[in-house]
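Teaching assistant here, posting this on the class forum so everyone can see the example we discussed in section. The complex has two components, and the goal was to see what a joint structure prediction looks like when all of them are supplied at once.
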Amino acid sequence: MKSIDDIKAIRDKMQSEIILRDNTSGNDETRIVVGMATCGISAGARPVFNTLVEEVATRQLKNVKVTRSGCLGMCKLEPIVEVFVPGQEKVTYVHVDSEKAKQIVANHIVNGNICTEYLITNE
Amino acid sequence: MRELSLNILDIVENSVKAEAKIVYIDVIAKDNVLTISIKDDGKGMSEEFLSRVTDPYTTTRTTRKVGMGLPFLKMEAEMAGGTFDIRSKLGEGTTVTTTFAIDHIDRPPLGDLGETMSILISNGDEVDYVLHFVFNETDFVFDTRELKEQLDGVPMDEPEVLLFIKNYIRENTPHGGLL
């Protein structure tokens, strides 16, 4: 069973990376934001969030944070995921599930290709 | 909500919005009663607001007119032979306490506290969380202040840390599908 002491291995690894990062970059952090209000949670935002964290962590993506926000007022489009890449316009994905979340990380975050099929359409 | 741990995630968000510095989350199973209590030191509510806070048409938001978080939790508790209680004082904080009859057929499962906690700490270092879980032989406490000490400057919201926390809490809050 894991103990809280096991975090030390991660800490030691991250500390050197963070020093490196702080020295090389100003503010070039990519943020993936998941709507996590009552509407988002009921629509399935939690597994989406966890898939995003898992993908970012296992791919060891640098300078990428997964975080949450409240309700954007478009509850029927939840789960909603917003991607902020520095220097680019915000991209909003709607009706996201775990499978789509994996695609978003692979195509958009890693390769820079927006997943146009998951954007808002004229429904 | 499909899992009570999702309700916890939802209700704690209220504490964060109320500018809490620390949120205590207790999940205590004893005899046939599951008690979930969420206590914060946020800005609290006036008596007037408190009196209508479980009305779905009450919310602090201005972009829409409904707030379903607390009404959902209240309904779920009362449907499962349980109780719902909320106490609040301006400037002191708010405590929400719900109980559920563990063997009630309409009680939602507790679900994954690891996922809920890792999402809660994903918004950075400003709010601390203390989770206390009691079930059978297990008596487990997770405290982000202790975690921060271990991390020694590495942010809690790094994806690799979040993944660790999720698995760490999952392993230490076993309930074998009984809760």
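For the discussion questions: Chain A touches chain B through 40 residues (CB under 8 Å). The longest helix of chain A spans residues 7-24. Think about how each of these relates to the inputs above.
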